[in-house]
């Protein structure tokens, strides 16, 4: 049975693996015996060459400037029961941009050219005075001025140099906060719940004074990595389907997976909302009931729906990697601030 698997309880997919690369850098594999892996092809022709893996964007060049920002150490993780003993980190992104190698500066300039304008409601929300929905109400009521002119147009965009005021108060963008949570079960991914269920905000309530929001969503019974931030521009980038942000999950199902179903998942299958295929799939345990799946789709409950469509019940689902971030040194239920290096990678190299 599952509980007798030797060593499984102490190992978690893509977690605590040190410097070992995740399975996404290799062809799909299955474990043949403890400590050994054997490549397995799921194509019809055993002699045919496997399809190349989807290319990841190059981020290795950023390592040349690692001594200038953040280094390699991660921030200490915290539980919801303790108050942070650290001030919210200062991210000196502008300073980094000035000292980075020219190749990296050029990449940053390309990204920033596309993201100069910001929607007014987002600017107001990022100033920390209210939510984006409430910001829309302030705009509609004529409470907001840009460069001395009352703006009531929904969707109005502001430049970084514009002066935005609420009444007589000048609004400045709130200090950005980036926080990574290892979400446990039984918490819903929302800022508040009318049914008084536990939300992920309870887990990070002592982290900072800023108003932060979850990036994307994990089901109530799904565990694993969840990013929270007040950087609306980054949040939109990481959730927009066109950016194809990679996520890795560990999945436990109720019965051994069939080879034909592995092939279907990696080559594509049709769900009610369209075709879907995983970037990669790996069998982790000898009984073929624990799998690793790498996918870039952000569709609702997509991993669960893939396996349910093929007749499997998902017993456990854990997100072990999100946009290159991992659960290293982050126990279940704990959170930590991102390092400056991680923020730069997310903003400019993912």
Automatic annotation (TrEMBL):
UniProt lists compositionally biased (Basic and acidic residues) regions at: 1-34, 42-57
- Which protein are we looking at? Pseudouridine synthase
User: Family, per the entry?
Assistant: Belongs to the pseudouridine synthase RsuA family.
The protein's matches in PANTHER family, at most eight in alphabetical order, are given as: PSEUDOURIDINE SYNTHASE FAMILY PROTEIN-RELATED, RNA-BINDING S4 DOMAIN-CONTAINING PROTEIN
Q: Which GO terms describe its biological process?
A: enzyme-directed rRNA pseudouridine synthesis
- Report the GO molecular function annotations: RNA binding; rRNA pseudouridine synthase activity
Q: Which Pfam families match?
A: PseudoU_synth_2 (PF00849), S4 (PF01479)
């Amino acid at each position: 049975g599952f509980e007798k698997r030797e060593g499984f309880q102490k190992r978690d997919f893509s977690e605590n693996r040190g410097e070992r690369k995740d399975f996404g850098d290799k062809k799909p594999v299955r474990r043949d015996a403890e400590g050994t892996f054997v490549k397995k092809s799921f194509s019809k022709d055993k002699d045919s060459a496997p399809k190349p893996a989807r290319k990841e964007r190059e981020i290795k060049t950023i390592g040349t400037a690692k001594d200038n920002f953040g280094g390699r150490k991660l921030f200490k993780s915290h539980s919801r029961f303790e108050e942070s003993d650290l001030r919210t980190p200062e991210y000196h992104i502008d300073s980094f941009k000035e000292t980075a190698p020219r190749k990296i500066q050029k990449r940053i300039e390309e990204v920033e050219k596309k993201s100069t304008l910001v929607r007014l409601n987002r600017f107001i929300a990022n100033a920390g005075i209210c939510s984006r929905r409430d910001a829309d109400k302030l705009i509609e009521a004529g409470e907001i001025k840009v460069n001395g002119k009352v703006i009531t147009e929904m969707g109005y965009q502001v430049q970084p140099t514009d002066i935005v005021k609420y009444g007589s108060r000048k609004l400045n963008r709130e200090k950005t906060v980036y926080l990574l949570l290892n979400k446990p079960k039984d918490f819903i991914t929302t800022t508040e719940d009318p049914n008084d269920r536990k939300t992920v905000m309870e887990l990070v309530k002592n982290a900072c004074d800023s108003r932060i929001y979850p990036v994307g969503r994990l089901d109530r019974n799904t565990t694993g990595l969840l990013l929270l931030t007040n950087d609306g521009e980054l949040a939109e980038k990481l959730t927009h389907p066109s950016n194809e942000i990679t996520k890795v999950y560990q999945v436990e199902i109720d019965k051994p997976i069939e080879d034909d179903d592995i092939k279907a998942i990696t080559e594509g299958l049709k769900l009610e909302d369209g075709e879907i295929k995983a970037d990669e799939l790996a069998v982790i345990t000898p009984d073929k009931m624990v799998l690793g799946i790498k996918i870039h789709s952000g569709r609702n409950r997509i991993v669960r729906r893939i396996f349910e469509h093929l007749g499997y019940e998902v017993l456990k689902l854990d997100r072990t990697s999100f946009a290159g971030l991992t659960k290293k040194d982050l126990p279940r239920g704990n959170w930590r601030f991102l390092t400056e290096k991680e923020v730069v990678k997310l903003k400019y190299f993912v």
